[in-house]
Amino acid sequence: MKNSRFCPCYPSSLLLQFFLTFCISLLCLPRESILVYAQNSSEAATTTTVDVGVILDLDSWVGKMGQSCLLMAVSDFYTSNPTYKTRLVLHTRDSNRDIIDAASAAIDLLQNVQVKALVGLQKSFQAQFVANVGTKSLVPVVSFSATSPELSFVKTPFFVRTALNDSCQVKAIGDMIKACEWREVVIMYENSDYGRDSVPYIVNAVQEANARVPYRSIISSEATDEQITGELYKLMSMQTRVFVVHVSCTLGSRLFVKIREAGMMSKGYAWIITDGVTELLSSMNSSVIESMQGVLGVKPHVPRSKELDNFTTRWRRKFLMDHPNASGSDQLCIFGLWAYDSIRALATAAEEVPYKRSSGFKKLNIVANSTDLTKIGVSQLGPELRSAILGTTFTGLSGEFKLIDGQLQSSAFQIVNVIGSEATVIGFWTPANGISRTLESLEKNKYSTNINNLRAIIWPGESTVKPKGWEIPTSEKKLRIGVPVKPGFTEFVKVENFGATNTEPKVTGFVIDVFKAVMDSLPYAVPYEFVPYRKSGENSSYYNDMVYEVFRQHYDAVVGDTTIVENRSLYADFPLPYIESGVVMVVPIKDDAKKNAWIFLHPLTSDLWLTTGAFFILTGLVIWVLEHRINNDFRGSPSEQIGTVFYFSFSTLVFTQKEKVMSNLSRFVMIIWLFVVLIITSSYTASLTSLLTVQQLQPTVTDIKDLIKNGDYVGYQTGSFVAGLMESMNFDPKKLKPYSNAEEYGDALNKGSRNGGVAAIVDEIPYIKLFLAKYCTSKYTIVGPTYKAAGFGFAFPRGSPLVPDISRAILNVTEGDKMIAIEKTWFGNQVDCLEQRGGANLSSDSLSLDSFLGLFFIAGFTSVSAFLISVIIFLRENKNILASQLPVRQKLESLCKEFDKKKKQKNVKPIAPALTVDLSDVTGNSGSTAQTDHQQNSFTTIICRSPDVISQLDQGLSSTEPSSPDRQHPSPVEIT
Hints:
Keywords: Disulfide bond, Glycoprotein, Ion channel, Ion transport, Ligand-gated ion channel, Membrane, Receptor, Signal, Transmembrane, Transmembrane helix, Transport. The protein is of the alpha/beta class and 976 residues long.
């Protein structure tokens, strides 16, 4: 009966219990969920719901953070925009980090829920498959964390990336490498779509920074600790100490712990991580952060704002409430901000699309064996919604939201340094300005890759000194240095005991001593050993083949008397040359005892002889024109005048001209011309003297062209590039003879080209100097031009980090006393010997026209000017003829007659008492010349009172002139 008493009350207690449970559940719900429920209840009749599918890895940090940001974005957006007619409704599915689960979730949302858009898809391999599904069903697929460069808006037009492409950051990484002047970088990447897809872009950025990638370290996302450690030990055995790590956050956490355990997070190492790890540093365990001290990283820059600070505080409170036991930090990262902005863009776009309740999926024609994708159909709202999303722009929590080619555009990256428990910002990078300490310090149109623009960096091992990027591992084998084995010129390189059993080859010589001095000057120890190189068979390309062995990695370097030439630089890198070089020709000297009968013509070249003779004639003609009308010395019969012109001009050569010039213009021309003659004669005398004294010692050949013309044989050193140089100068290869040493050079030159020897030896200057030093006589000399060569250098593999340091060490050795001591040790005092032979190396070249062009220009200008002035004066004096109405021919004849007449002098001073007799009658001149100047052509006679004397004088004068109609008596005697 007791139980029956409480039976009527039992239903009431159940209702009360249910009511209390419902109230407690409401209180426990997040505020955003209550708000969405209230809005959906009150506005269901006035708004249109837009179903959106969300696919996330809900057990991951990014998945949890992304889901909370998506829910908050929906709540915040419609709270700020209560008048919107559309409401996004999120339908979340867990992809469990698997591509199959992600695809199944997408098909389920499209087929059963008929969502208008898909959001999430953290992994690139998930996004790539679902993007193809969305493109087939015309449903936009929006991803805020799939960053692979292989995901393309062109391939899948309905894929929208509201995150940055991974390739956006590689330029920043390349500039950091360039700023640190590293020459080799190893890339470590995850063996997944995320890792592999970005490697080509990273490699290109490294190469643009003048560095190379000698090795790519691939680490599987499922690699065991032993496999990771084995790969790290392999990297430790290499020289490179700079690493770019592009892995996921999960693998990165394990990787850096093992890196520290292997001792690779110590001084001398440098590590750069991409944004996939940098952004999630805050979510990593403290032990992982401790193992990453000194690591550099890049991540997108997010501008600070009040909205961002407010949202971060609210999100942290909500996240800790939703996930009180979640591992990791409560720090919001860029992926959460991109998720928030993605919902805002999607909600804005949904409001702009004319939405109807019937806007569902249009079914396609279904045939037998159709797949689930075919049964889904195509979205009628999808194309318009996608276009609206692509055209949406605003300033979101992550910065400016603007999509170009279906993806978010980058603006700036932060460069961080892991110090202590956090990543400290040490600078920024922008596409327009490069590296800078702050964004405010950017200078317009100035791109910088200077490491000094960054704040102080703490490198691994708590070092403040920038790692040089490489070092020789203690466990590595010695560098194999190839040295040539050659029979001649052993002063440069000499290999002894080569091929002997149980005996190490002994390598000595000038080149070896220089190399040892250079290696001793390096700031670190580099172990090496010499390995002789000998090529069997044909030796014409000996040095080329030896350098090629470096390219084939048979040697780590080649040290020898190797000339730096273009074709060898294709296979190896050369530091600065340690000795200058050039190609010259040495020939025998002949003792010419027989004097050349025409040696007096040699001082001047033929063009100078012709020009000088032409100016002699030109000057004589100009003087004749200026003096003919006023000077009797330049008058007479035509033959006499021609003789006067030539005699007068050429007599100036020895200053023996007897004709007196009367015109001031003539005197001016003669002053200039006599100065030119003085210079020419002095130069001729000096050159002829030199020829007569040096003529006894002359080279047999003076130019390579003479060798080609004469068909002579030429010798060169075996294996030298000189053979190719001679062939490039059109020299017959059959006329080239290889020789190995200086003794063979001397024998070949003594025999001569006609007797089985050669007419000349063409080789590089160091060898020629050594050859002439051994033959310190006047038997040989260097002739012709010097063909430039880069010099002798050491060959290293292309991109070798040793090259810059060795170049600096070479400068240190060659600029000091070490080089002088080494040269004296191996070459002795060959310079003094060459100076003794200096006279034999002289060659007397003829004087050329180029040396006197200035003088001839002045003389020619003076003569022509004087001639033109005299012509102008003559025409002005006879302007009445020019103004007459006579025909042109008669005018010219009249002018010629006037020019041929003797011009009277007007400045005659009277002298008394004197008898002036005209001498023209005595000389027998014609009537036109009878009117000569009385001052120049008269003599004075004392007047005799006796008529007989006057009569006799008169008869004597008249007897010298033939009779003429105009003049039957002697010239009158003028008494003044």
